[in-house]
Amino acid sequence: MDSIDTSSKPVEGPGFSILAIGALYRDVIVKVPQFPAEDAKQSATSEKVRVGGNISNTLSVLSQVVAPGTQLLYATAVGGPEAIWRITQLKTSEVKSLLFTHFFPKTTFMSHAYDDMLSRVYNAHSSFYPSWIHFEGRECFMVEGVIDHFISRREYKQNPCVISVEFEAYGRPGLDRLMGMCDVAFIAEGYMKAFLEEASKGSWDGNDKELMVRLFTNYLKRTAKRRATAFITVGSKGAYAVRFDAGTVEMRYIPAPEIASSEIVETTGAGDTFIAAAIYALGYRRLDAVKAAKIAVNVASKKCMLIGYDGLGNPGAGFGVLEGENPFATPAVGMSPVLPPARPTDGLL
């Protein structure tokens, strides 16, 4: 394997910026003394309200490790009186470099507001061209329109932006079509499992992770974009870095570090944290996919030991020791040679 720079200093090159599109939520975290039995009632000991949503979680983590002033744009459509509360909290305490958020009066169909928001992305910010665009994987047919808009611009011909999509909930209309349009796919184990069950017309116990990934990627190589990269998370087992190249597939398994159950305090948002760390490594640091997966697994594991997302990193040191070979991490087990270097025309990969 070629040596990889594991220092925290970003490499020199075109500035990193990201446009992330997805839903915004109000998360309510309720604490109980113990996990309740089925149909049992149990009083909560505390309740905490915070900003939620996959994209806001991802940007909250990413904002900790990029240089001040880095453009992290969050485009979302929300409705109702609580939208203002959420946006204010997000601006002041979560995403420090948030530049804009669209919110609209509550409508009968959420897609109306979403469509309006996208039209503003097209027009009001026509001068802005990000180096990375990330989609949560909702309103997928509209996402196609956003992708078509950006790849048709002259900037894309000169310096292609990286397009990434999260594949979390299998069965969302149009989500499967996005696999052939993205440069980077973030695929949850649940999505992979549901895909295989539908393809095989049966249930899947999911115990053999490697077999699942091999079967799944065998399907995907028919539709994935040429030289696309995929990260497939498998919960506490870690993740797989996958590279598609003209019908061939190369994989590398990155095991998760062993953490005592007593140290796990919150797993909600671990997947969003993984995505943030991978985007940081690939897009901001310009590391390869294997190194990005190692960093992402470590950072997501660390997040499970924290309440919320604060304290994972800082602009000066990045994710710190989580970016290097340290006692917290486990060496990767290679199932194939190192992933091939990307061509310059492949943008930031």
From TrEMBL:
Signal peptide positions (record): none
InterPro entries per the UniProt record, alphabetical: Ketohexokinase-related, PfkB_dom, Ribokinase-like
Positions of the Carbohydrate kinase PfkB domain: 220-303
Highest rank taxon of the organism: Eukaryota
PANTHER family: KETOHEXOKINASE, PHOSPHOTRANSFERASE SYSTEM TRANSPORT PROTEIN
Entry protein name: Carbohydrate kinase PfkB domain-containing protein
Organism, as annotated: Arthrobotrys oligospora (strain ATCC 24927 / CBS 115.81 / DSM 1491) (Nematode-trapping fungus)
